[in-house]
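Narrative summary of target 7.
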Amino acid sequence: MSGETLKDKVSRLADQIHSGVISNRRHLHANPELSFHEYNTSAFVKSQLDALGISYKSMADTGIVALIKGNIPSEKVVALRADMDALPIIEANNVPYKSTNEGVMHACGHDVHTSSLLGTAKILNELRDDFAGTVKLIFQPAEEKLPGGASIMIKEGVLENPKPDAILGQHVMPLIEVGKVGFRAGKYMASTDEIYVTVKGKGGHGAQPQQNIDPVVITSHIIIALQQIVSRIADPKMPSVLSFGKVIANGATNVIPNEVYLEGTFRTMDEVWRTEAHVKMKKMAEGIAEAMGGSCDFNIMNGYPFLVNEEKLTNQVRGFAEDYLGKENVVDLDIWMAAEDFAYYSQAADACFYRLGTRNEERGITSSVHTPTFDIDENALKVSTGLMAYIAAKRLSPLIP
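Modeled conformation, tokenized:
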């Protein structure tokens, strides 16, 4: 329409496609698939891209990368990422689009991310006269499971040919009201490592502890002592978390078992300290076990790195969000000790990962992610599609160097 600003165009298109984005989101929500098994989801995304005439190729088995080229020549490239996998959770919501795949649920909003990126693609495809350069669309599998789909797609070249100047991702946040988004420049999310420990002793009758080497007691000392990694060894200014959530000692009231099994997680925001902590934890646990007459197999599975939002890019993108939504609808985020495999992108390129508000207390839409009752206010889909399209188009504006 004559006289429309870019904001006006994006907002109008976001309104026009809103019902279609809702339909896509509900289709994906009703048909969730687990990490590395997103075959039907991938086929659905491809069918939507085909309908838009957007070229794409497959990566990482079920992953997809597509390109939208603006009609103004430029070497600038912005990548937009959405994850596609669901979680092994039995859905408790009583909604028409409830999961039809028993025991699998889109409880982390990846159905929102995928449908939103498809909507953003539709908007940008209509706006090719308004931006210079290329938008790279990344539909990624397996965010929820190590080694993470992002790491595989990067190894297969998703950040090459063309190489993006910036990569953006958005994620649902049920703590933020619908209509709002959140940003944090700098370190934002933690690295995450999985810890698997077997403490070995010598089992026997609980009434004769002197004849045994009690792995339960050894394990209790290890759990308490390892907290010094966070409370006494880590720099107090460096966020660190060490938690054990699984302890199995298959003895009885009067039976000391031969071994105890532990599982836990370690999270922080510095790769040098992360490596040092691994060494210190292993040495401490093995030393305690040996000193108490037992032994300890201490294994750490490296997970995702920490996620950092490049400051200049994030401040720029936040400004675009304030332009599009109004300053009152853009909020500050605190550091978040959860993890995200988008962190791999942030370690390889300038990145900005922001939060999409989905909460509506009046309608009772308040459940956290990774719960059986998670859902969203679908008005968020108008924000998610329009904002990401506006950010990408502004970033690729021929008026911005």
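The CA atoms of residues 21 and 115 lie 6 Å apart.
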